[in-house]
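User: Predict the structure for this protein chain, please.
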Amino acid sequence: MKAATVTQLKKELQHRNPDELLALCLRLARFKLENKELLTYLLFEADDEHGYIETVKAQVDAQFEEINTSSYYYIKKSTRKILRGLRKYIRYSNSKETEVELLLYFCQKLNAFRPSIHRNRMLTNLYERQLNAINKKITALHEDLQYDYGVALEKLGR
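Assistant: Here is the predicted structure, written as structure tokens:
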């Protein structure tokens, strides 16, 4: 089965009544955890973006505490897993400020992580790629935010 385009879906959804839309949303939420997480964000957390950011930061903190530090291999795998989850939460928000703030927080945690990530080429490259991505994202923000986030980026070694 080939999926319909977003335009086709939008046109079809406009012709449905509210009860049918509710049933479709609930059915969609049953099939995949990401759909349920997105609906949770949209219904309960989208109004309080700062609270959402703090919740995600707390999850990142917990995940960094659980990293197995016995070898850089495990550190690398855990770090990539944390970043994958962080990108998912950023996608839910769809806000550039949230994206920059969460990526900056990730880089701060990674930079302060012990054993040092700068002793491993792959982790250093991951860190540098994130700093480059943040730098590109900052240019799309308001001037005041550009300055504030630019200062935070400078502290990380940019």
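The longest helix spans residues 72-93.
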